[in-house]
Amino acid sequence: MRVILVVLWTLPLFASSVHIYVANSDDNKISVIDPAADKVVREIPVSPNPHGIVPSPDGGRFYVSSESKDLLDVVDRKNSTIIRRIPLGTRPNNVAITADGKRVYICIRGESWVDIVDTVSLEKVKSVPVGHGPHNVYRTPDDLHMIATSMDENKLTVINVKTEEPELTIPIKGVPRPLAIESNADRSIKRLFVQLSSLHGFAVIDYASRMETRRVLLPDAPPGARPLIPATFSHGMAISPDNKTLWVASMLDNSVVVFSLSDLSRITTIPVGRGPDWLTFTPDGTRCYVSNAGANSVSSIDVKEMKELTRIPVGKVPKRIIASE
Fold first, then answer.
1. CA–CA separation, 240 vs 261, rounded Å?
2. Which of 6, 134, 215, 230 shows a CA-CA span of 20 to 30 A to 89?
3. DSSP string over 140-173
4. 196-241 pLDDT, tens per residue?
5. Long-range contacts for 76-84 (Cβ within 8 Å, ≥24 apart)?
6. Spans in the chain with pLDDT lower than 70
7. ∠ at Cα 161 (160, 163), nearest 5°?
8. Topology classification of domain 174-325
9. What does the domain layout of the chain look like in residue ranges?
C-alpha cells in the first residue's frame, strides 16, 4: 500500500493581508511596509507633517492629521488618494476612531480640546474640552470611552463616546505623554501605563481608584546620553497581543524594554535605531515594529526571540506607526 503524505503550510497572518503604516512627520507621505518582506512596498501621499493615522473599521479609509496645515486628510485606501481635507484647530496631533467608525477624535495640541469629525458628512461637528496641550487620544478596550492626554495641565480626560462629553479627569504627577491601557477579562480598564516628560520609565495608574500606584524605571542609559527630543526620555509603548508583555521605547537609550505585564518585572532590552518614538505589533503578535525618528528607519523585531531582525529605511522623522489589514 502506498501512503501519501500531505503537508499543509501555514503562513503567518501578516504574510498576505497586514501591512505596517508609518507617518513620516517631517515629510508628506505614509510609508507602507510589507512584513513578509520587511521592506517599503509603496508610499501614500498626504498633507505635510502627518502626525496621527487611524484606519476606518471597514478598511476603506485612513484618517491622517497634518500638524502644520491644521487638517485631517481622508485617504481612500484602494487608490491611496486624498478624497477630502477637513479643516481642524491649531496643530492637530494624534487621532482615534470609534468602534462603529462614525466619529474620528483628534487632539488639537495648540488649543484645549479634542475635535470630533463625522465620517459621513466629513465635517468637524464638535470640540470637546480636555485641557490645554492635548497630545494623544486612545479608544478604550470596551469601546465606550476615549482617553485624551493634556500635556499643559498634567491630566487625562475620559470622554464618553455616547454623549461626546468629558466624564471624568485623572490628575497626573507630571506631563503625560503616550500611554497603554491594560484591560480586565470583560474589557473594562484595569491599569494605565503613562509615560511622562523627563522620566526614563512610566507611571502606573490604578483605574478604579484613579491613583498612581508606582513608577517603573527603564535601565540606566549610557553616561552623557541625550534624547532626540528634549525632556522626552521614553516615548511609545504597547501591550503585546497575547496580553503577556509590555513593550516600552527608550529615546534616552535607543532601545525597547520588555516587561512582564503581570508584575512589571523587566525581561530584556532590545537595541533599535536612534530616537525610537512609537511601536506597534502585527495582529498575530509575531512581530513588533518600532519607528526610529532620529534614523529615518523602522526596526522589525521578532517577538518570540526578542531581537531586532532588520532596520527598514522610510521617510523623514517617522513617528506614529500602526498595523492594519
1. 9
2. 230
3. -TTSSEEEEEETTTTEEEEEETTTTEEEEEEE-S
4. 999 999 999 999 999 999 999 999 999 999 999 999 999 999 999 9
5. 80/42, 80/44, 80/45, 81/45, 82/45, 82/46, 82/47, 84/122
6. 1-16
7. 70
8. Methylamine Dehydrogenase; Chain H (2.130.10)
9. 46-171, 174-325
